[in-house]
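Summary for the funding panel

The consortium committed to producing paired sequence-structure records for every protein in the target list. Below we show the first two records in order, beginning with the earlier of the two.
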Amino acid sequence: MLFGMSLPANLNQLSADQLRVLLIEQEMRLADKDKELHWRQTRIDQLTHELALHKRWRFGAKTEHWPVEQRQSFKDTLDTDLAAMETERTQLSAASAKPKDQAKRLPLPADMPRTEIHYEPDSTTCACGCQLRCIGEDVAKKLDYTPGTFTLERHFRSKWVCQICEYMRNGLTCKS
């Protein structure tokens, strides 16, 4: 196989005109292959040159060098500027810092009508038969609006626990 073309099985049996046609076709194909090869080599050379330029730009020596005096004056002013910025930052952070226990909202007026609602369990006896013990309570405040008046509702929810069941839940034994 020559240049991707199959030749006839027996070239000796071809006439002179057939051989000339075959030769012309082979030359045309060879010329096309040469053009394509030349184009590809030109493209490879172009990309290689472009890559070299990019490498030189990225990794090459920089032309922007400061004189020693200018570099030293920059370093001197840099230290003073950084110190001034640090003091300004500390002043601003100290001025904007608020105590964590300070309320975000103003308290409601003391003369506002208040309603207290207590939630207690129906029974203070545990399922095991022991007496429940109050360990604290949660208080939630709600501003209520009835047309024409605002009232403050305070909801008290007590927390109850059985000391014996608590010990049993934790895998301990009762001390009584």
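The next record, for a separate protein in the list, is shown here:
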Amino acid sequence: MARKGKVLISRDLCKGCLLCIRSCPAQVLEQDTEPNKTGSHPSKVSREKEEKCVACGNCFEVCPDICITVYTLEEGEAV
């Protein structure tokens, strides 16, 4: 069975560089249309695609602001 994951992004720390979106092989992330407190449009998890996360950690690795956390879910654990 494929590994499942969950991504959390601190929207107020994200400066909207979008590197994480480009690095996601499952296309789980997208740019938010609402600005954060600094006026940037941060990345966010797409609610339609969040279950496709494979916990690869690419988004975490490329994030220059260290605002992303990736969790590996146990089998049967909900996203």
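Regarding this second record: The chain has one domain: 4-73. The CA atoms of residues 5 and 15 lie 23 Å apart.
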